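Researcher: Structure for this, please.
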Amino acid sequence: MQTSVRLPPLSALRAFEAAARLMSFSKAADELNVTPAAISHQIAALEADLGVPLFRRLNRAIELTASARVMPISSSIPSLRPASSRRSRARRRHSRSV
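Model: Predicted structure, token format:
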């Protein structure tokens, strides 16, 4: 019998990786060219999908929970980061030339 594993959306994983690395939803939003609210929604969806909180939201700061610190995402996403950075740069160039 084959069991299918449903993976979280890549956009939510990218949002988590950027927010965890930069320790800021705003900085993650800037890097991914989205709004901070979009990052917050992606993180909330990922937390709901996984069933665990990933960040403690503080007054103007965030911190990783124990669950987030043990996630293997940051070791698997760096290979995606160069491609997304190239796409972001290309999108910015295109939007300036239009």
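Researcher: Any notable elements?
Model: Residues 10-97 form a domain with the Arc Repressor Mutant, subunit A fold (CATH 1.10.10.10). The first strand starts at residue 55 and ends at 58.
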